[in-house]
Fold this protein.
Amino acid sequence: MADHAKTPLLTVEHLSMRFGGLLAVNDLSMTAYRGDITALIGPNGAGKTTVFNCLTGFYKPTEGRITMHRNDGQEFLLERMDDFRITRNARVARTFQNIRLFGGMTVLENLMIAQHNPLMRASKQTIGGIFGIASFKRAEKEAVEKAEYWLEHINLTQRADDAAADLPYGDQRKLEIARAMCTGPELLCLDEPAAGLNPAESDELNKLLLFVRKECDTGILLIEHDMNVVMEISDHIVVLDYGVKIADGTADEVRSDPKVIAAYLGVEDEEVDAVEHEIEETAAEARP
Amino acid sequence: MAEATQTGTGAGGGLELAEIGKDLAITALLGAAIFGSTIAFKTETATGGLSLVLRFEEAFFVIAAVVIGRLILLLTVWRRPGGTDRTFVPQALQTRYTEFLAKTGKAFVPIVLLFAVVFPFLPFTDRYLLDLGILILTYVMLGWGLNIVVGLAGLLDLGYVAFYAVGAYSYALLAQYFGLSFWICLPLAGILAAFWGIILGFPVLRLRGDYLAIVTLAFGEIIRIVLLNWYEFTGGPDGLSGIPRPSFFGIPFKRGEGGFADFFGLDYSSIHRIIFLYFLILVLALITNFVTIRLRRLPIGRAWEALREDEIACRSLGLNTVSIKLTAFATGAMFAGFAGSFFATRQGFISPESFTFIESALILAIVVLGGMGSQIGVVIASVAMIGGFEIFREAEQYRMLIFGLAMVMIMIWRPRGLISTREPSIFLKEKKSVSADMVAQGEGH
Ligand SMILES: Nc1ncnc2c1ncn2[C@@H]1O[C@H](COP(=O)(O)OP(=O)(O)O)[C@@H](O)[C@H]1O
Ligand SMILES: [Mg+2]
């Protein structure tokens, strides 16, 4: 079980999302704890992205309650908020399954846009900015420094002035995470960040996520369809299948859950034992 | 190889005879369909009604010209190693153009600016050229204003001329009913136009892409029709006349005592006022340019461009996209309002006829031709378009045809406009332009 000394960061209660006749998410309740990397896994089409879209305001859930408990004690009911307010006020940032960078803008510009709200305030809603007031210049300098800080951590300092669309795929993924971090989130939601990465890039990504958890006071909620990817870095795993939560616990608990194995392999219950054994073996090999 | 299978104009080596024959047959057929109906049959007013004149010979010659023209093109220009690139302009010309731009780019802007400043005093500048200069500068200003909405924020606005009209009528009506002077009305006209931009923006900016274009188009027409029909207030189709001319900061341009010439000890000449108008619009346009360049480097300008790139990503980063769109709309509208009040004071007379859709289309064409988001591109496009219009004035009814043809050619040659690279708004070590194929064009393009 997850460490219950930890306080909840995000609680999802009885979340349902219906598209016409399709119940994409069915009565999901889960909690992401402060300081944890929580993984939401499940086969393709299980409803993971839909959960994210509900959390970040892109969909209005059919039913349910989503509460963000910010570090300073404020609480936000996300299902009632506009998408941009969820990032701005509730401090939940996200990335997309299909990368959504500002391709025609430079890497640095991408990171500056993520700091739009504080910069806007510093520029006195543009009026002060036009006349170049000192406080705006200071804020802009700080924003560039913050961008540089993240560029260093994703090893892209050299490419700061290149168009984002020019970057290789793996770097685009990392840049999207850095951009989300520049909004100053307390919960970072990543939609299949490891998809399409080679093993070396995947390793780098894991390091980046562990760094975020350790240094930034930011909890992580991570979607992944390949469960082996998340096993080593997740503190807590929730498994979704056909919109229903089928397991919830630590990596080891989830790994050995027969329902999870069945969902992943599409096998009948009788065969589960055999498959379970197989997975144990491969997992043992994978461990150092 | 794959290119060997390419058919038609792109085929490598020699073109197959059969291919050419087929191509020409299709050309002739299309030609017959178009010119057969438009040229071969002509109606003429005869006594007691219309009579039909048959002109098969003329139609035949035109079709023959088209077919032969296509044959020549097939054998010369389009006969390239095929399959790789489907633009119609040789690559060498493209790269040479880019190199030319890179070399002259830095010096170009100051030279143009200098020329614009000394233009009224050049020996060959006469009243006609000065008027043309004013007209071009008006379009430069409008182009720069629309560039904020279309080029930066990526919102396709087909009703931009509505804000130009609001500006013009604001000045005319404020002057008529309250006797306010030009210098007070100028900012008011801008504010009113911006206000209308926001009013329009609220319902419209939730729409995406083509819908936005259609609604802005309709809005432009609505404003014009209201102006046309609200007879008591706007004078309807008669328009408003007797709009006060601008003064030189309080000193009127008039003959004799207290006039501009008298005050500065010059001989009176009607050209003084024209020169003054020229500099007025030059300054207004430069202010537009300066503010736009400034805004681009501020968070709001960067947000406009981000909006053009990806609206959903913007929202995920906490940007209030509705208010960002509204500011783009309002800022663009404000500059159109300034330009409108300038137009009113220059003409002394305005009527709804000056604010038809074709004006919106022309301004949009300037922005698109110049290269969306490029400031200097707008200048080049305005000079080319408005100047070109004048050069072909002789051609009368064919003017639009020539104009359309030129536009098509240029868009084939440079689909992203004359200046299509994007300058980043901020850089860490080195400023690198972003090439056009990476820059998104926003909605509805
Ligand atoms: N906007 C939508 N409209 C209709 N159906 C949708 C929509 N979004 C997702 N779905 C459906 O919901 C189910 C879950 O999709 P998704 O959340 O993308 O799965 P996952 O991310 O786990 O692969 C799928 O069957 C998908 O077709
Ligand atoms: Mg998904």
